[in-house]
Amino acid sequence: MQTIKNTHNRFYFKISLVAFLVCLFSAAIFLFNVLNTQKKEALLTLDAMQLEAKEEAAELASSLRALEPLVEQIAADLSVGKLTVPEIDQRLKRDLGDNSWMHGLGLAFEPYQASGEDRLWSRNYTVGEDRLIRRHRIDYDYTDTEHDWYRRPLLEGRYWNEPFYSRAAKTLVTEYGVPFWLPGKTKGVDAASGVVFGNLSISKIKRLVDFDNQHISYYYLLSQQGRYIVHPDRRRVLSGKTIFEYATELRDKPLHSMAEHSVSGGNGYIFHIDPITGAETWMIYEPMKTSGWTLVVAIDNSRLIDQDNTRRQWYLFIMLVSVTAVLFVAVVCLRKPLTPGRLLKASMIASVFIFSAAVFLWVVEAKYPNQVDNNDELRVMSTEALNDFKRSQIEVAIARHLPFPKFIETGVYLQSIEFEGANNVQISAYVWQHYLKNEHKGIARGFVLPEAEAPVIEEVFRDLSDPADPGCLDEDISLRDCEEVVGWYISASLRQEFDYSLFPLDSQQVWLRIWHKSFRDNIVLIPFFESYAFLNPKLAPGVQHNFVLPGWDIEESWFSLNDLVFDTNFGNRDIQGLQHKSELYYNVNIRRQFLGPFVSTLIPVIVISVLMYLLVLISTKSSKASEWLGFTANDVVLGLSALFFVAALNHSELRQSLKSSNIMYFEYFYLVIYIMLLYVAVSSVYIAKNEAIEGVDENFKEKFLYWPVLSIALFLITFLLFF
Fold first, then answer.
1. What's the angle, vertex CA 678, arms to CA 676 and CA 684, rounded to 5?
2. Residue 520 and residue 569: Cα distance in Å, rounded?
3. Between 20 and 30 A from 93 (CA), which of 111, 274, 458, 566?
4. What's residue 499's pLDDT?
5. pLDDT digits (tens, 9 = 90+) for 61-72
6. Same structural domain for residues 458 and 523?
């Protein structure tokens, strides 16, 4: 093949080499800065989280310390005779009533110590959510060696017991026990007369720890022996297994190392793959020196950094690397005399690099997706945030001279989502509400789904806290007054507007909008957080395990409260002007799986692009090629017409199926294809109209530019749209 003469070939080679080295050096520095910035950002967030964990541990330790002097004072008063056996019941009830944050308070005597007639004598009182104090019988021989809550304080003195199931209170508790000596006995010489104990229920301990931070996946508490006191998976608490046993079963060496360090009083953080979430996770552990417990906080590694900023940095890095790769191809190509074959080969290799860069942009977008912020949405992911919202609602009611809002806790358990069209989804779920005695007297039970079309709502359960309460038996809702949880099964078709502008790399937010049945009144629905083991959106609270949604992946779920303004009073003449009401939303974020769109839309585009290039190859009148290929402009135009028909049909089907009001990302692929079709058609006609020149490849420019133009166009579209 004839060599292309170029007197400036050497000059261009040097320019390309210098540009390549500069870009290569810049890419290396940029990569170092990106990784270093991410590391610094993650460490700063980790340090902040560690400080927050330390504060929470100190606050919890303070609550535990408040229990200790209360128990110790009762023991001291018994020892000096200030408290006698007949006065015990009154004292326990009084102290428990003044400290209702506790779960229980009691004592137990050694055999025949309280009374010469009774072998065992004990008292055990608990305070419920209704603040009523109840007495429970200890109807077993607590002096048996199997009952550590009694034996350990006698043997070791002041002692925080491992979590256990209280047969008397019928709940999981952790207990602080102190031995006492009746008057006439000497501590350290005589055997103790019994044990005074105070306990906290595991459910109440969970309320004492509250992280208002979206970085945190979950937390748990370890005892001084490594047993789980609090954990989202209740089975770990009930099993009695230590964290060491779980770490051994899972072959998780970092977890085992963290457990050893934490139970010995150390603090810090480790990195490992979380067995619960399956994600890269940092575990922050902070000791509580008073009780010997350890607070462990799990943080999703992907949430330690600003995802939008990180995505842009990686996009810039990919852009820089792709330019470096193209310059490398230019340097290699310019080292030797240029020929049409070498140029054509170089253009194809450069195009492969650019197409690969576009694919890497997709990978980055999948790892660090665009975050869509809804300014009207108040995400509620912790009890602390919920309490702040409730206080603000009360302040608004006072300022507007409205009745105080009544808050009703509401939970959702989503079982299925099915797309019925571009803007319709069919859902099935369980919804339940918690009604309180005195607070919700006379309020109707139920809710409405304002966006649902012909919803099916069927009551499936009603749990009463006290079935014997007369207020629960009244069928007249206006008179009903008791604590109960009412649950419904719902099936509804919801019409919602989805944004498909990033198809096929899009994610969608499906929501369930809930109003109370008496929406004219100042009733506010709030999330029922106690119904969920996890509150972190990444762990999808309230979504059924192994949720099946073909073509989509569940990414997050969360509750939000949106402020809605009504310009009507719904017929209530006592209300004038605009109404502001808070609506409860249960949101699920889903991300489209790439395989389906790849097969249905991307593969046809790839095939059309290759076929167009084949038409470019046959658009020549050189003697040998013309004989082999039989080129005529008419044949090329007919072939292009067929390709246009296929592309237009696929494009039309895509718009009909999604009905997007915007131009979607993948539609730009079709627009580029249309332009390339015109380009090839005009080129073929131009070649056909001009005389062939011996030794000249008429379609060389078309072949040389085809793939670079196509790849650069698709890369730039992707870069600009997602950046």
1. 100
2. 8
3. 111
4. 86
5. 887 788 889 999
6. yes
Picking from 592, 580, 512, the residue whose alpha carbon sits closest to that of residue 552 is 592
In 3-state terms, what secondary structure has residue 213? Answer: coil
**CATH code, domain carrying 185:** 3.30.450.20
The size of the chain, in residues, is 723
Average the pLDDT over 288-302 and give the result. 83
CA distances from 217 to 212, 297, 300, 341 (A): 11, 8, 6, 57
**DSSP assignment string, 609-667:** HHHHHHHHHH----HHHHHHH---HHHHHHHHHHHHHHHHHHHHHHHHHH--SS--TTH
| Radius of gyration over every alpha carbon of the chain, rounded to an integer in angstroms | 36
Question: What's the domain count of the chain?
Answer: 4
Q: How far apart are CA 273 and CA 217, in angstroms?
A: 13
294-317 as b/e, with b when 16 or more CB fall inside 10 Å? Answer: bbbbbbbbbbbbbeeebbebbbeb
Please say which residue of 205, 238, 267 terminates a domain.
205
Tokens of 712: 């650069």
Contacts of 12 by beta carbon, 8 Å cutoff, 6+ apart: 6, 334
Residues 401 and 531 in one domain: yes
Sheet order of strands, 293-300 included? 228-230, 216-222, 293-300, 280-288, 268-273
Residues 116/108, Cβ–Cβ less than 8 Å: no
pLDDT tens track for 189-226: 888 999 999 988 877 777 777 676 667 788 888 888 88
**Is 190 found in the same domain as 251?**
no
Distance from C-alpha of 318 to C-alpha of 715, rounded to nearest angstrom: 10
- Does residue 574 share a domain with residue 636? no
- Cα–Cα distance for residue pair 511/414, rounded to 1 Å: 11
Is the domain of 659 the same as that of 709? yes
Tell me the pLDDT band of 4, cut-offs 50, 70 and 90.
very low
pTM over 0.90: no
C-alpha distances (whole Å) from 174 to each of 61, 132, 223, 562 are: 14, 21, 10, 39
Query: Taking Cα atoms as reference points, which of 376, 438, 358, 339 lies closest to residue 697?
Result: 339
Identify whether the C-beta of residue 658 lies closer than 8 Å to the C-beta of residue 503. Answer: yes
Range of the domain at 581: 378-593
Classified as helix, coil or strand, 6 is coil
Residues 448 and 543 grouped into a single domain:
yes
